[in-house]
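<instruction>
Derive structure tokens from the sequence
<entry> Chain with its tokenised backbone below:
===
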Amino acid sequence: MKLFYIPVFIFLLSCSHHGDDTSVETTNLKIKVLKERGDSVEKANVARGNDK
């Protein structure tokens, strides 16, 4: 699961460089959505037996 956060931070950094989302609330919302997405992916991987 830790590896999942690396692309998340890269994604957030790339967004902040464009200046699209300067508000902290928007960034926190993105992190929350991405975390939920990552958790569901992790659960699906465990169910399929692909957990590394």
Helices lie at 2-18, 24-48. The chain has one domain: 2-47. The two ends are 9 Å apart (CA to CA). Residues 16 and 22 are 7 Å apart (CA to CA).
